[in-house]
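ZP: hey, is the (2R)-2,3-dihydroxypropanoic acid complex queued? I don't see it on the tracker
AM: it wasn't, my bad. submitting now with these inputs:
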Amino acid sequence: MPDAVALRIADEFDAWTLPAIRMTTEELLHAAHAHRPEALMLSSGTRLDAVTVAALPDEVRLVATVSVGHDHIDRAALRTRSIALTNTPDVLTECNADLAFLLILGACRRTAEHQAVIRAGWGRPLGMTEMLGIRASGRTLGIVGMGRIGRAVARRARGFGMTVLYHNRTRLPPALEDGAGFVPELHALLPRCQILSLHVPGGPATEGLIGAAELALLPPDAVLVNAARGSLLDEDALFAALDTGRLAAAGLDVFRNEPHVDPRFLTHPRLFLTPHVGSATRETRTAMGMRALDNIAAFCAGQVPDDLVG
Ligand code: DGY
């Protein structure tokens, strides 16, 4: 936890923490049985599957995840045991949208390849037609999932003169659309997207949302960006689309098997990649930790926490 969050934990809570930067599920269970806390505070790197939830001690009444996504937690299993769940929405919206935009620009402009040139010593001027990217400004951006983060990406896109189209379960009111065009069918949106950016939550409903059939509907030379969840994308289909040129490039912050990514990601030149760091700024990680603590404090005081996940 960031320092300010760790200080507040020490000041306000009767808490135990593990020294390891990332605790395994076994360590979590072992510690939970040793200390029998009322609340568990964890992040998206710690999976709470049905077996783990079933093995939690009875004292645990709340799981407070320091993330907006909660697909790492089996909600049905928590419900069975009447354990509440909170997350940390809002506070990471702007940083996640910043990162999505970094991916858009980095993928369009071949930043990973350009960095490799610099890091190899550069040494000769690039030719007029060498390693050319794609102009990002003025393009049509398709956003799948127009929640808080999708809308924050749309705001940035307007500054880049992009046309913004979106697909969402329901159409937004005009004030929230802010000029973005609603496309009710995902498959009707895809052929119109020069850049496609994914902003829906992970979980069974969105598993494999973008596969070979969807990528085939994009216009040639499209750019795909995913700063949401790795489970949204069929990675075999991604590599096939990069190889055929259907996709000019992709910018990805999330992966199916993270943190152990498919080895094909390590070498493919048309990928601009970051290791799941959408919320990884000092400001946002501190705000996320504080928000989780606010939820825990409210819950322990017998109130309904602001971010109770329904
Ligand atoms: C989130 O908050 O869901 C981010 O992806 C970090 O896990």
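AM: back. Residues 44, 67-69, 92, 278-279 surround (2R)-2,3-dihydroxypropanoic acid (CB under 6 Å).
ZP: great, adding it to the tracker
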